[in-house]
Amino acid sequence: MGTMQITINDIEYGIDISEEDRLIDVLRDKLYLTGTKEGCGEGECGACTVIMNGDAVNSCMIMAFQADGKKIYTVEGMKKDDTLHPIQQAFLDEGAVQCGYCIPGMIMSAKAFLDKNESPKREEIRESISGNLCRCTGYNKIVNAINKAAKLIKEGENP
Predict the structure, then answer these.
(1) How many CB atoms are located within 10 Å of the residue 94 CB?
(2) pTM of this prediction?
């Protein structure tokens, strides 16, 4: 099909794509950014969530050509040097990670949400992750982690 230009985690790429490539295929198979997981492949589970131009999107539902010229952030772009992002740290601190499969997508949904809402209510947090399925945690620890992350970010801990 051709070459797309895309910025991923603040790095610009020119990537050869075919018309059937999805954004998740580009991330995982061409750039080896394997933090983004494919669960259902139908946009229902949220495991493949990334941030595209500021919004959380299911990368399994975005054709690669639709991401041409866009800014994408994946879980690999969250850590700065050797310091975890406050969201990642809060997930660890609150025990919100069990098997870990859904966590990259959950973290990216949380980041997109917290970038727009610095003082969320618990119900707003629950709504923001409603597109992300987790079969292990029961969500309470995840909501606690996002709530804690909001406080850390507000206090200026490496947003």
Answers:
(1) 19
(2) 0.93
**Cα dihedral 142, 144, 145, 151 in deg (nearest 10):** 150
Q: What is the SS3 assignment for 134?
A: coil
Sequence-distant (6+) residues with CB within 8 A of 152 are 86, 89, 90
Residue 156 confidence (pLDDT): 82
Q: What is the pLDDT of residue 137?
A: 80
Q: Determine the Cα–Cα distance for residues 97 and 136; give it in Å rounded to an integer.
A: 9
Count the Cβ atoms, other than its own, within 10 Å of residue 52: 21
Those residues of the chain that have pLDDT short of 50 are 159
Q: Estimate the crossing angle of helix 86-93 against helix 140-154, to 10 degrees.
A: 140
Q: Which of 9, 4, 2, 6 has the alpha carbon at shortest distance from 108?
A: 9
Tokens of 146: 């996002």
Helix or strand (DSSP H, E) at 116: helix 103-116
pLDDT value for 138: 81
d(CA 133, CA 116) in angstroms, rounded, equals 22
Q: What is the pLDDT of residue 157?
A: 55
β 2-8/11-17 pair status: antiparallel
